[in-house]
Amino acid sequence: MDATLIAQYALAGLVIGVIYCLMAVGITFIYSVMKMINWAMGEFYMLGGYLQYLLLSTWLGPSRWYLALPLAVLGVGLLGMGIQRVLLRPMFVGQGERLDEYATIVTISLTVLFRNLAIVVFGPYQFSPRDYAPPVQVGPLPLNGSRLVAFLGAVILLGAFAVVVRWSWFGRALRAAAQNRLGALSAGIDLPRMDMLAFGVGVALAGAAGALLAPVFLVFPESGAVSTVKGFEIIVIGGLGSIPGSIVGGLLLGLVESLGSVFLSASFRDVYGFGLLLLVLALRPAGLWGERAREA
Amino acid sequence: MGRRIVIAVLVAAAVAAGSGAPGWSAAAPIALGVLTPLSPPGDAAAGQLIVHGAELGIQYINTVMGGLFGGRDGCQRPATQVRLAVEDDSGVPEKAIAGFRRLVSEDHAVAVWGAFHSSAMLAAAPLADEFRVPYISTQASVADVTKRHFAAVFRAHAIDTDRVAAWSGFIQAQGWHKVAMLAENTDYGIALMEATKALIAAGKLDATLEAVIFDRTSSDLTPQLLKFKAARPDLVLNVGVGTPAYLIVKQAHDVGLFPQVPMLASYDFPVRPEYWKNLGPAGVSLAFISYYHPRMAMTALGKWAALEHAKRYHDVAVYANLNSFGDAVIVAQAMNQACSSDPRQIIAALERGRFTNWISTEVTFPRAEGVAWHQWSPPMIILQCTRGEQTYDTTPILYPPTMKTGTYTAPR
């Protein structure tokens, strides 16, 4: 097979992999800080897409996508913070038992709620904002302009996220909470506030992926379902709680899916990701960047 | 004691009357059921169109026909109104089974139609036989729906072999020989791929076929489309339903495959209002299979439905509307001919009767061999979107030659 063609498939896989990373980083970030899994992550992705579409089609006009993007991300982030404050914070007050079960029930309920709400409000139809940019040629790969914007947007967001988490006071406080909640509390960090912010930032990343990809994959009530599955695959491949692991896992998944669907069979596209996941778990049970933990 | 016996008999009579299927009593409106996709992953937009058509059908039966019976077709039972019961199958087999069961056992529907996804219809078809309630396919086209000879299942819609015959004729008329097909992994997609391969193997289509089956939930089809682009086919067959159908057009356009290489979609989603909203200029040049064109001659029923649809929904009627309307009026005619709301009698009437729908006055469902069992097929045409925001009535008919109003227009 032509080397150019293989390069095209690989590049297509990497582009989609970077976008997967946004979802995975959001999930792993919330898990690291709050020690809970947000099963409604795909629905925040879906809401990001709807918000972006609404802003472009009703208020800002189709060409001002660059203004709509931050607004959509902010909107999803604020919604996430509100949900954390009202529905999730009560479980952390007094450190009640069975926090995992409570979080699972609440976030799965949110999944059902948001999907059905989208059907009621927008109908079961697909929507698509106009492409963000004209098609471009990236090396051997002819690329849709919106996909390039989504790729660059994802890289910028991931970079900004890494900088904030690594070097800002806020990031240090979040890392402290992720490492030792009791220790962080003793050091004067306002944990309930950190939880709320972490949840908001995590879901905002999913919302960003949804808004960036709205013209590429269309917006519809179940558009987040696949992204949730991919996000969870990635965090297990990369190691639960590891942000570098999520990034490498996302890229690997995109690559494996793209090459597998061309060289093996497109009908088993999702199987390749699970194959990779099983392989990683067999060789490194804690994931590529995960750390082994012992619980008393 | 005697008084107690009288009360007991009255109570027993009341209970017996209440437990019988309400649809079978003369006074209460008789329930007719629609089981269709109204939420993803099914093609919910198609489901909405089918429901609109069914609503028009109910309106026609209750107003224009004046209800069921009441002297029509020699049936002297008192005139009875009908009501619509709707269930969502999401295009998913298990939901279709649950929905069919609810329609029959809770809503007491005496006939059901509205299927769009073949997998969902095939899952519920055995239930139709079990309950002996007629179940008409509105848009499920896989051959097995009729080929499996279900006693209670009927279809007034195209079979996948009709669809393959249509695109085979079109491909030959265009002089194309190298065909690529991207088909979803459903009964519909796989059956169309196999039927096309069989036609080529039998020497009835002089072409080579590169077929790729993709997972219906996939949202990124770029790698497969790049592979097609490298192979330089004469035509790409788009066998996606709902979101995948749009994604194939959009992503093929993004990688520079379409419209440079012609694309033929397997059904009529480009006639829907959301087509241009979702695809914009990327949707220009797409050819697609349809079963209706606004300039086709229709029956009086069809003309009524098209006019009423425009009044009620402020939009041009499409095939899904008209065929669902047609199924409703076929059921009504069968009930009048049977002079009964007993589902078994309706099945018998459907088998022996002759009906009028929106496009034909000669609709029959014979107990024929193979896929022709309980089958009536509408005409099948191939249209093309030749410019952006094009209205349905201005799309040229490319095939069959007897109805042709234009030729395939390649992009400039």
From TrEMBL, chain B:
Keywords: Signal
Gene3D superfamilies reported for this sequence: 3.40.50.2300
Signal peptide start-end: 1-27
Ranges for domain Leucine-binding protein: 29-386
InterPro entries to which the protein is assigned, alphabetical: BCAA_transport, Leu-bd, Peripla_BP_I
Domain of life: Bacteria
Protein family: Belongs to the leucine-binding protein family.
Name assigned to this protein: Leucine-binding protein domain-containing protein
Native organism: Candidatus Segetimicrobium genomatis
